[in-house]
Amino acid sequence: MGGYVAASADIIDFIRSFAPGFIFTSSANPSIAAASIKAIEIAKESENLREDIRENSNLIREGLRDLEIPHLDNDSHIIPIHVEDPRLCKEAANVLIEEHGIYIQPVFYPTVPKGDERFRVTITPKHQAEDIKRFLSSLDKVWTKLSLRRESVDAQNLEIKFREFIDL
Fold it and tell me: How far apart (Å, rounded) are the C-alpha atoms in residues 61 and 72?
């Protein structure tokens, strides 16, 4: 959140009018700031919560790899699952809630580039292994029902290497 631009009045006006980061950004209200500070304090004192998040994240990533569901294989507890089509992303989200009772927010342009539509999965230490298995099973059923693209582990490794190359 936040940022600073030093530029002419015309450029600043252009940024205010067209920059998605500016249009969709607002300051945090005090209660959210206070809750965030408290959450950080709790996380600093609780190694088991961090371990549980890591274990749960690893379970999801392992399951996604086994099911060949395309995702960004990162070290974060936030795992992007790639759908890459706005209509299918919305339809998949609807099937997940209507048929499986799982709510997941689809992410569309301008939050992500067009053609990079995805689900943003955030795991918590409160999720249990059974929750994760049910989630993965539901995703597998939705991917099959809608004939969504699957990818092999080799393709995922190639994507990771490509992203690392770009970051050089």
Answer: 9
Instruction: Give the model's pLDDT for residue 127.
Output: 93
pLDDT at position 15 over 70: yes
Burial pattern 94-111, b for ≥16 Cβ within 10 A else e, equals: ebbeeebebebebbeeee
The C-alpha atoms of residue 31 and residue 51 are separated, in whole angstroms, by 27
The angle, 0 to 180 degrees and rounded to 10, between the axes of the packed helices 47-67 and 129-145 is: 30
Residue 61: count other Cβ atoms within 10 Å of its Cβ. 20
Confidence check: pLDDT of 6 > 90: no
One-letter amino acid at 19 equals A
Concatenating the DSSP letter of every residue in the chain gives: --------HHHHHHHHHH-HHHHT--PPPHHHHHHHHHHHHHHHH-HHHHHHHHHHHHHHHHHHHHHT--B---SSSEEEEE---HHHHHHHHHHHHHHH-----EE-TTTS-TT--EEEEE--TT--HHHHHHHHHHHHHHHHHTT-----HHHHHHHHHHHHHHH-
The angle subtended at Cα 123 by Cα 120 and Cα 126, nearest 5°, is 150
